[in-house]
Amino acid sequence: MSGGALRVLSYNVHRWGDDRTALARVVKACAPDVMLVQEAPTWFGTRKKRRAMAATFGLRYVAASARNVILVADGIELVEPLHWRIWRPFVRRRLNFIATQLPGGAVGGHVLLGSTRIAVVCCHLGLHILGRRRELEQILRRCRAFGTPYLLAGDLNEEPDGPVWKLLAEEGLTDLGADAGPTFSSTNPHKRIDGAHLSPTVHGRILPTPAAPEDLAAASDHLPLLVELSSSSG
């Protein structure tokens, strides 16, 4: 962090299961102060895997819920972390296809933006079309409970004409990625299903991702969102 600005990287890393070396290059090129990870590695040795992943990025693993993780750079402290389970439908249906969903969650905490406390919150909404709005309602209640401005970022699993995005707009949040282009898939970007939404009292913008296109394609099935927050719009 420098000059009262904070760099936040939101990234679905596809379970850390693609090209790990390319992923590390992408993250290091972005040089985030805070990284909000969706689809972090899990199952056996979860914490060990996540710490190992963070180390390849030059970051520290500090908080998690479900498959959402917050990593920070040296000199950045995440205080009062909150990690909570989010209710989501266990079963989803699409046409004649029936599948189960993993439990939902979100994680957040306060960081300093200059002398201002701001909450950063990471989420990954489910694949149940109607269930996503209920998940987001739960997350927004927790975001309000921080009592500070906040950045909510993550994999929304829905394009901007959907009800989740409408709810975010009704909440009065700024859609930082409105002009940032599609985020999925990394090899053929054609859908904007990842979002970064910010309280209107804080200035933020999406930065171009300073990584090689071939690394972005190999690192994950999603493209990252690199957000710069500043304490004023000047």
From TrEMBL:
Keywords: Endonuclease, Exonuclease, Hydrolase, Nuclease. The keyword Manganese does not apply. This is Endonuclease/exonuclease/phosphatase family metal-dependent hydrolase. The keyword Hydrolase applies. The lineage of its organism: Bacteria, Bacillati, Actinomycetota, Actinomycetes, Propionibacteriales. GO terms for molecular function: endonuclease activity; exonuclease activity. InterPro entries: Endo/exonu/phosph_ase_sf, Endo/exonuclease/phosphatase. Residues 9-194 form the Endonuclease/exonuclease/phosphatase domain.
